[in-house]
Design brief:
Layout lengths: L12 E5 L3 H4 L1 H12 L3 E5 L12 E3 L6 H14 L5 H7 E2 L1 H8 L4 H8 L3 H13 L3 E5 L1 H4 L4 H14 L10 E3 L6 H6 L6 E2 L3 E2 L3 H11 L11 H10 L4 E5 L3 H4 L3 H9 L3 E6 L11 E4 L8 E4 L4 E5 L12 H11 L9 H11 L16 E2 L23 E2 L18 E6 L15 H7 L3 E5 H7 L6 E5 L4 E9 L6 E5 L27 E7 L3
Parallel strand pairs: 1-2, 1-5, 2-3, 4-15, 5-6, 9-10, 10-11, 16-20, 17-19
Antiparallel strand pairs: 7-8, 12-13, 13-14, 16-21, 18-19, 18-21
Helix pairs in contact: 3-6, 3-7, 3-9, 6-7, 12-14
Length: 527
């Protein structure tokens, strides 16, 4: 997030797009409700009528995969009605004329044809956002899990920059992270092109710094993303895979493709807490520990580095993650040796400018938000205050991008996936809790009352859903919260797994799969 969670309470406008925080991020959802009660305007853009849509000044119920057209139309209205921040654009950005040229044809009427949203609602949303003194954009996987994911994010940045909402308290562009330490994992270099702190592997001066610290020669080429590894395994180019705390046999798209890839490996090592569907493919399983059994740090969605402390000793036969990894390293010939998680953190901070001022002592009581560049630095509440990280903010406009799959005669409906309030990710942990399972223990798919009625499907009835990749049986949940030609399904469950159906088409930049749009058909069981 460019800004902080606490700042949500004092914003004048929340533009929420592609996110359902009251279910997927309930703490942030609470802050948004507080802001609304204090008078903040609320614009919601989502294919479903999520809970916050009921509190919104306007709900833009767009078709899945049409984010760019909608955002271009909002920018079009702001430009035509001269609601943009001309001084900010002149002083802090470049190539605004490229955006103006691209959005010229994206009238609300044209966007309505693409998105299915009323043109007057687009105008209303644009005016609310552009006239607010402090307007924050909040988004999640409904923006990124598309073949246009990177371009969707850049389109949000265009909107924020043209209204002067970057580098301002209670404003900004704020991705809400999908899991508890996703931000921290990326910060620590769990990306194929980065060392910790997003220092690029292909920069010689960066590589030299880490080579000197670690006493080894390092490659200058970046590697594969997780979504590129599985196709490489199928082709035989990737022989071995070490999966750590991930259940790809349930969480990745096109599960038949995933099972084929895992089966084709010469060696699969899985480091995890439980016997997951992925671990069932493993040649070697390394039993790890939970968050409650180890010391370390998590970095949350607002860039806050926080201490995690051991509450109980590790179970017999298990080891903490860093201890397992260092032992594997030693047996492979590199004498990696540490005495504690704090020692590892200190080494990382010494090599990472944005973490350089952070230590366990400094975050003993309260976490610190990076960048924190020296021991006297208090941390950074919001980013880009006086200037952009790159110096000048660059407008990057795009034409609308069609999803990899669209509805057709054979597969006439669009399936989108996400979370519900009760289960966490692929239920590795929450699925073992009886109370949670009594409330939300089985797979279901939401479909509209009109669609259900036209197909003769009753609420709670078992139905068959098929895509070009496979078929599942699940329970119908008839609702008035969704468009007639769209269905929504939580991805949590192994029985009736949504990812048997989803597409493995990737965003060409981020390599994120298009979980949010898959063409499907429906059949009554036995019909």
């Amino acid at each position: 997030m460019t800004n902080s969670i606490k700042e949500i309470e004092d914003t004048d406008c929340i533009f929420l797009i592609g996110s359902n925080p009251t279910e997927a991020h309930p703490v942030l959802g609470t802050f948004m409700k507080r802001a609304r009660k204090k008078g903040a305007k609320l614009v919601v853009a989502d294919p479903r009528e999520i809970e916050l849509a009921k509190h919104a000044d306007v709900h833009l119920q767009l078709k899945p995969g049409t984010n760019i057209a909608l955002l271009n139309a909002i920018c079009h209205v702001i430009y035509k009605e001269k609601l943009y921040d001309e001084e900010y654009i002149k002083e802090r950005t470049a190539d605004f004329e490229d955006l103006v040229e691209t959005i010229e044809d994206y009238t609300p009427e044209k966007a309505s044809e693409i998105c299915g949203v009323d043109p007057e609602d687009i105008r209303k949303a644009a005016r609310i956002y552009a006239t607010a003194d402090k307007a924050g954009i909040y988004y999640c996987l409904g923006i990124t899990e598309h073949v246009s994911g990177t371009r969707n994010v850049m389109s949000l940045a265009n909107l924020a920059m043209m209204t002067g909402n970057i580098g301002k308290e209670s404003a900004g562009v704020n991705p809400i992270r999908g899991q508890n330490n996703v931000q921290g994992a990326c910060d620590m270099g769990a990306l194929p092109a980065d060392y910790p702190g997003y220092q690029k592997v292909f920069k010689p001066e960066v590589r030299k710094k880490f080579e000197e610290a670690w006493g080894v020669e390092l490659p200058g080429e970046y590697g594969l993303t997780s979504t590129e590894m599985l196709p490489a395994a199928i082709e035989g180019d990737l022989k071995a895979l070490y999966i750590f705390g991930e259940d790809q046999a349930l969480s990745d798209p096109d599960l038949a493709h995933v099972r084929k890839a895992l089966s084709n490996l010469e060696l699969l090592v899985v480091q995890d807490l439980f016997m997951t569907p992925t671990a069932e493919f493993a040649d070697v399983i390394l039993p790890a520990t939970s968050y409650a059994e180890k010391d370390g740090t998590f970095t949350n969605t607002e860039r806050r580095v926080q201490r995690v402390r051991r509450a109980i000793p590790p179970l017999p036969g298990t080891r903490v993650d860093w201890d397992i990894i260092t032992e594997v390293s030693r047996r492979m010939g590199y004498d990696m040796s540490y005495n504690s998680s704090e020692e590892i953190f200190d080494e990382m901070a010494a090599l990472t400018p944005s973490y350089m001022g952070i230590s366990y002592d400094k975050i003993e009581e309260l976490g610190v938000q990076w960048p924190c560049t020296d021991k006297d630095h208090p941390g950074t509440k919001f980013l880009h205050k006086d200037r952009m990280a790159r110096g000048i903010g660059l407008f990057m406009p795009f034409e609308n991008v069609e999803s990899a799959e669209i509805a057709d005669e054979e597969y006439p409906y669009i399936l989108s996936t996400g979370r519900n309030l009760y289960q966490y990710n692929v239920v590795t942990m929450t699925g073992k809790t009886d109370g949670i399972n009594q409330v939300a223990g089985e797979s279901y798919v939401e479909l509209s009352e009109n669609l259900a009625g036209s197909l003769g499907i009753m609420n709670g009835e078992k139905i068959k859903i098929s895509s070009r990749r496979g078929s599942i049986e699940t329970k119908a949940k008839v609702t008035d919260k969704i468009l007639d030609d769209v269905m929504y399904m939580p991805f949590h469950y192994a029985d009736g797994a949504a990812n048997e159906l989803t597409s493995a088409a990737l965003c060409p930049n981020a390599k994120t799969p298009e979980y949010k749009v898959a063409a499907v058909k429906i059949q009554k069981i036995g019909g």
